[in-house]
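Annual report, structural modelling task.

Input specification for the NAP complex:
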Amino acid sequence: MSGPSTHVVTGATGYTGKYITRLLLERGDAVRTLTGHPDRPSPFGNRVSRHEFDFEQPERMLDALRGADTLFNTYWVRFNYGNRTYERAVANTKCLFEAAREAGVRRIVHVSIANPSADSPFPYYRGKAELERFLGCLGIPHAIVRPAVIFGDEDILINNMAWCLRHFPFFGVPGDGTYRMQPVFVEDMARHCVDAAGREGNETFDACGPEIFTFDEWLRAIAKTVGVRARLVHLPKKLAYWTSKIVGWIVGDVILTWDEVGGLSSGLLESREPPRGTTRLTDWLAAHAKNAGGSYASEVARHFR
Ligand SMILES: NC(=O)c1ccc[n+]([C@@H]2O[C@H](COP(=O)([O-])OP(=O)(O)OC[C@H]3O[C@@H](n4cnc5c(N)ncnc54)[C@H](OP(=O)(O)O)[C@@H]3O)[C@@H](O)[C@H]2O)c1
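The model returned the following structure:
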């Protein structure tokens, strides 16, 4: 990109969107955000104008989108909760993409997931595949960025695994724990998105980091960092899932979804491409995660309260 531009980032006060926004502002670009939480405290103060998602009246999102160079889309739901379902998230995202086209946005950078598939048994992966297909037909140049799992300071996953490792006598691992995960650092992920905005044409690529762990290795690395013993018990997948549901009821959250169990244990959290991210989870854990799991971080509280 040449010269300062204006961009729209979904969820600039969320997780990935925050880091994309930070990079764009550091380059001198202007950012507007579309969010479900326009009143949430923002680390960017007045530097980022806030607009509310309105999928029922998409014309209300045009003000945010008009004049924007790139729409960075992170919007998605991790699990079905009330009327916020994967199905609705697919319909809402299509609505957002169409609004971007009507507003004349030059490019869309869309965050998807590694290994989406139209015939996946998992609605999360099917929904992501459907959005990639839709974007391909939309007629706006686009980049599709596919992380498998993202880590960073606001991370819920690692924090809550650390919390479980600290608070329970054992950790119920779905299946044999030998399936692999290839995490990407959130700042690397943001850089891939911002770099992709500056290119032309259409592209799709995985955004994964340099290290690959089995699920057991991942848990042991977290346990070692926080100074507890990893007492891993391998359970049938359904039993591990229901155990996580029971803990979820106690803490008022959704800890692990069936799609996540399926994605994990089917090897979908590993890329088939050379890694693009350079930050190693083990280095980050050593430097940042000593206090991880001190308190539980609720995904439901973050998005629904
Ligand atoms: N986090 C990971 O490990 C991971 C792994 C693979 C793929 N991804 C993909 O990366 C993208 C960004 O993920 P993230 O973890 O960075 O997400 P996030 O910041 O927590 O949320 C991204 C956007 O989606 C909205 N959103 C999230 N859950 C919602 C819900 N239940 N109802 C309504 N709106 C909701 C947020 O709304 P607000 O603006 O109101 O916060 C925000 O605008 C997603 O497309 C996700 O599928 C993430």
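The longest strand covers residues 30-35.
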